[in-house]
Design a protein that fits this description.
By secondary structure, the protein is mainly alpha-helical. The chain folds into two domains: about 1-25, no CATH class; about 35-83, uncharacterized protein sp1917 domain (Helicase, Ruva Protein, domain 3, Orthogonal Bundle). It contains four helices and two strands; from the N terminus they run ααββαα. It has helices at about 5-20, 25-30, 55-70, 75-80, and strands at about 45, 50. Strands 1-2 form a two-stranded antiparallel ribbon. β1 and β2 form a beta hairpin. The two termini are about 20 Å apart. The model has no long low-confidence stretch (mean pLDDT about 85).
Length: about 80
């Protein structure tokens, strides 16, 4: 799949989740595929190290939060996911 089509599909999927008013638990449960390298995301979000969070759902939320923070700072996705 071409990269543009992939990101368009992701954007449509997120828009659908928002339109349906789904919570985070449903959002992550319905995600077509989670990046296997997400557990390599390290750092602190809201004073808590993401790699030390015990609750799996909260850890997924904080991985996403940290990913967005790092992308907003201009860091490359590949570097964040250590690829």
């Amino acid at each position: 799949m071409r990269r543009e089509n992939y990101w368009s599909q992701i954007a449509r999927s997120i828009a659908q989740q928002i339109g349906e008013g789904n919570d985070f638990r449903t959002f992550f449960a319905q995600a077509p595929a989670m990046n296997p390298n997400r557990s390599l995301i390290k750092g602190v979000v809201c004073g808590v190290r993401v790699e030390e969070i015990d609750d799996p759902l909260m850890q997924q939320i904080r991985y996403l939060d940290k990913l967005i923070d790092e992308l907003a700072k201009g860091k490359a996705m590949e570097k964040i996911l250590r690829q």
